[in-house]
Amino acid sequence: MAAALRTRIPARLGGATASRALGMTPDGKEAGKVVGTSSGGRVRSFEEIPHTGTNRWLNLLTFWREGRFRLLHKHMESSFNTLGPIYREHLGLQSSVNIMLPGDIAELFRYEGLNPQRMVLQPWALHREIRGHEKGVFLKNGAEWRADRLLLNKEVMLSAAVKRFIPHMDEVARDFCRTIGSRLEDQTDGKHGKSSLTLNPSPDLFAFALEASCYILYGERIGLFSSTPSMESQKFIWAVERMLATTVPLLYLPSALLERLGASLWTQHATAWDHIFDHAETSMKRGFQRLSSRPDVGEVPGVLGQLLEKGQLTRETIKANMTELMAGAVDTTAVPLQFALFELARNPAVQESVRRQVTESVGRAQGDPHKALEGAPLLKGAVKEILRLYPVGITVQRYPVRDLVLQNYNIPAGTLVQACLYPMGRSAEVFDNPLTFDPARWTRMRQERADGGAAFRSLAFGFGSRQCVGRRIAENEIQLLLMHILLNFHLSVSSSQDIDTKLTLILQPESPPRITFRML
Ligand code: HEM
Questions:
Q1: Which helix (H) or strand (E) holds 35?
Q2: What's the burial of 364, exposed, middle or buried (CB within 10 Å: 0-12/13-18/19+)?
Q3: Measured between alpha carbons, how far apart are the two ends of the chain, in Å?
Q4: pLDDT tens for residues 425-437?
Q5: pLDDT score for 33
Q6: Which residue lies with its CA nearest to atom 43 of ligand 1?
Q7: What is the pLDDT of residue 8?
Q8: 171: left (phi over 0), alpha (psi -120 to 50) or beta
Q9: Which positions in this protein are listed as binding heme (predicted)?
Q10: pLDDT at 419 (0 to 100)
Q11: Pairing, β 35-36 against β 404-406
């Protein structure tokens, strides 16, 4: 079967466009000479890379009919099992070379260039074009991207910024636990003492992520734990989910044509983005008012306030980036938290060892949440484990700026190459006991592995200068909430069976797991 798939295909049907096959970069510049590693022997041509089928439209039809978009992560895993550690995929408008071994991924990143490029999310870009919105860093490229990104890094990535926002996240994480705690108390009767609360924590986790994001980004507490969630918040959460779910099929289809035809898939996508932009507009207006009318000492300016104060970005650019940051912030933290509660609950011994370390660290930190996190490497390991087993984004993409060799195949500059995180995270070739949730493995791996590729095993936030700009926000937010939950509650689940997952641009549980909380 694999041999049958290793047929040569004409260049016009291949993964690279003619210009790419001729060694051109996406900017149309001529590529340099072939560089990279090979395991010896003849370097094979791009066309010889195994593939899943070369008729991109037939492949797309099969995907559509079989509802495979939501299982793309599983499809990738089985394609690697069948075809080996490198293969080509041709799906509608997208063609890519997919890889999964850390050594190959390290090699890819060596060729990402000064202004690395990811796969263009065409439907997002079209929405900005049609509505006349500026693009944020997610959609910009080249020197323009770099200039905005360096300014954003100062407000969300550098350690001074992290120290500024950790206390605010800590405050929201405490509120989350108070809310669950008081619901638990309502259930407790005097006679039987400790009671338990079994629930789907997903709505509370989304509320936590939205509350924390608004506080950090706009400097605003929106009160999701003190009242019933506002329509505005619910609409926002719904809009982000809709936007994510409609993005995946649109990546492979001609969005511009669907827009002209008024296709429902496009209309749903554009409407969802409109809500997200409206939310940003309203939050920004409130932010401007607060900042101009109440310059009190102690007022939280948020990222918005910092960017306005520095005055280096135009208001349109700030709005574009605040919109992208908010759209990127909520699901990406709420969803890994669902997986984390589930894994901690179904692994009681691991839960206990993380709790022990967290309790000791909090004791030493004397009320400083930043220090408390620093003293609990198992908590960090737990988050890495969650993102290894359930990466939010299942691939990281790059267009190498020079030709390179991977697995002895020539990859022309400008080819879309995807580092496939989901299959890598579950591969026995890459991780010992890959399906075991083992937060301590990361400390062990650092101590045991001397090979330079070790670092390329934890790539959930991407790599290098184009890595996730919200990384520090996400890592700290997830760790802080887990820290407070472990300090307050014992977690369990009724069944330790694996949970099914689906892809809606980000990887999610098919249905959110129910967790039992018991007061410690
Ligand atoms: C666990 C949570 C998260 C994960 C796993 C994640 C993952 C990623 C990945 C893989 C990339 C592409 C990186 C690359 O190409 O090298 C990315 C980019 C990005 N993420 Fe995240 N993300 C998370 C949370 C967040 C949050 C909380 C925000 C906003 C506050 C955010 C905003 C963005 C933006 C704006 C980009 C584009 C950056 C650029 O191109 O310069 N992400 N993220």
A1: strand 35-36
A2: exposed
A3: 55
A4: 999 999 999 999 9
A5: 38
A6: 468
A7: 28
A8: alpha
A9: 468
A10: 98
A11: parallel
**Strand ranges (DSSP E) for 416-475?**
417-420
Mutate to test the pocket of ligand 1, among 137, 398, 461 (most ligand atoms within 8 A of CB): 461
Type of residue numbered 401? V
Question: Residue 460 has what pLDDT?
Answer: 97
Tell me, what's the pLDDT at 292?
77
Select from 389, 338, 346, 337 the least CA-distant residue to 495.
Answer: 346
- Angle between helix 315-346 and 377-389 (nearest 10): 100
Q: Whose CA is nearest to atom 11 of ligand 1?
A: 468
Q: Closest by alpha carbon to 105, among 463, 507, 448?
A: 463
Q: Given this model, what pLDDT does residue 455 score?
A: 76
User: Which residues approach ligand 1 with their CB closer than 6 A?
Assistant: 118, 137-138, 149, 324-325, 328-329, 332-333, 336, 387, 392-393, 396, 460-463, 466-470, 473-474
Q: What is the pTM of this model?
A: 0.90
Cα(256)–Cα(262) distance, rounded to whole angstroms?
10
Q: Which is it for the CA torsion 125, 131, 132, 137, positive or negative?
A: negative
Q: Do 279 and 326 contact (CB within 8 A), yes or no?
A: yes
286: enclosing H helix or E strand: helix 264-293
Is 468 marked as binding a ligand?
yes
Q: Which residues of the chain have a pLDDT value below 50?
A: 1-36, 297, 452
Expressed in angstroms and rounded, the spacing between residue 474 Cα and the centre of ligand 1 is 9
What domains can be seen in the chain, in order of their start residue?
112-393+460-519 (1.10.630.10)
Task: Round the average pLDDT of the chain to a whole number and report it.
Answer: 88
CA neighbours within 13 Å on the CB side: how many for 508? 18
